[in-house]
Design brief:
Elements lengths: L3 E7 H7 L7 E9 L8 E9 L10 E9 L5 E8 L15 E3 L4 E9 L4 E8 L2 E8 L7 E8 L4 E3 L2 E10 L11 E3 L1 E2 L10 E9 L2 E3 L3
Antiparallel strand pairs: 1-5, 1-6, 2-10, 2-13, 3-7, 3-12, 4-5, 4-10, 7-8, 8-9, 11-16, 12-15, 14-15
Length: 213
């Protein structure tokens, strides 16, 4: 069975619901920013993942995500996960799996709520909200995306892209672009207001292969 599923969770939730046997993760191709200046933090972040085809062969638990590390040591992270019928990944997920096909637009929106002091996390699929979660996570210190493979080698992962990425700071951080680090990924991180908001029109993540060494 070939399917891609959408899930949303914080790292704390994932750890509480993880199976007793730890599923080792391997990471590849990333676009990473942060940490922020010492007097600032990320109030809001929004991006849209254009889903690629599933990995081939569809083995392991393959996750594509944008995440934000926080001052509490947590990770705010919505995930698009490629899962096979016999995968263990459901034991780690928070909420109901939502199927999606290649070319679908998955928008991940994280926003700090001043009233609750939590990050409200919303995932939309082709413009329709499919998942919400609010977490007490401190203040976000950076934003980035990567390819993650769990459990076993995930095979070939097609290239893909994120569009309309916007990161909004609490206080302007004019030097934030200097924190950008990439591996087999491209995208121009720019600001038009002195570092209060940062945008990337398109982040292109190259294809990769997770194979036994």
């Amino acid at each position: 069975m070939r399917t891609t599923a959408i899930a949303i969770a914080s790292l704390a939730t994932l750890m509480r619901h993880a199976p007793a046997t730890y599923l080792e993760s391997t990471f590849a191709n990333y676009f990473s920013t942060g940490p922020v200046a010492t007097n600032s933090w990320i109030r809001e972040a929004n991006t849209t993942l254009v889903l690629p085809k599933t990995n081939d062969p569809q083995v392991g638990n393959l996750a594509l995500w944008p995440g934000m590390g926080t001052s509490n040591g947590d990770l705010i992270q919505a995930l698009a996960i490629s899962v096979a019928a016999d995968s263990d990944s459901a034991e780690q997920e928070e909420g109901t799996l939502v199927p999606a096909g290649p070319g679908s637009l998955v928008t991940m929106h994280y926003k700090f709520n001043d009233t609750s002091s939590k990050y409200d996390q919303t995932v939309s699929l082709n413009g329709t909200v499919v998942s919400k979660l609010s977490t007490t996570s401190g203040h976000a210190q950076g934003w980035g995306t990567a390819i993650e493979c769990q459990e076993t080698e995930c095979g070939y992962v097609p290239g893909h892209k994120y569009i309309n990425t916007k990161i909004t700071m609490d206080v302007a951080d004019p030097d934030y672009s200097q924190t950008l680090a990439t591996y087999n990924a491209t995208g121009d991180l720019t600001t038009a207001d002195g570092g209060l908001t940062w945008t990337v029109d398109t982040i292109v993540i190259g294809a990769t292969t997770f194979a036994a060494s």
